[in-house]
Amino acid sequence: MTMTIRWLNYLWQEPHPATLDEIELLERQWDVQFPEEYKKVVSLHQGMTPEPCVFDVGRGTDVFNTLLTICEDERWRVYSVRGTYQALKHHVPPGIYPFGDTPGGQYVCFDYRTTPKQPKIVLVTVETDIHPIADSFSDFLAMLHD
Fold it and tell me: What SUPFAM superfamilies does the record point to (predicted)?
């Protein structure tokens, strides 16, 4: 049974949509094609937190805290996909791009290394270990639970 995800305000008091131009610019900068479902979700819900938010990884669970932002907002640079990528890129293999974070400082990322057209979803830990979560962004959203 798939639960409906409610997106709750987190960084801003109201939704702060990302534009298609902002998303396409990031795709060109990173030389990737984001999944259509991600484009839809981030265009409406960047900087928000999902409910339910728990996902299974390995033998445990973690929490999808924030959908990182595409737009540049200096106040929230720590929640920016670009800022997060800059911090991570020297610690992970090429082809791993963050789109979400956890309360423990870990990152939920696209993994384009083996599937450039349909990136897998992985968790990058604070120790920069990489753990598989889901085969696609849609599968990742479908697995969120309370």
Answer: SMI1/KNR4-like (SSF160631)
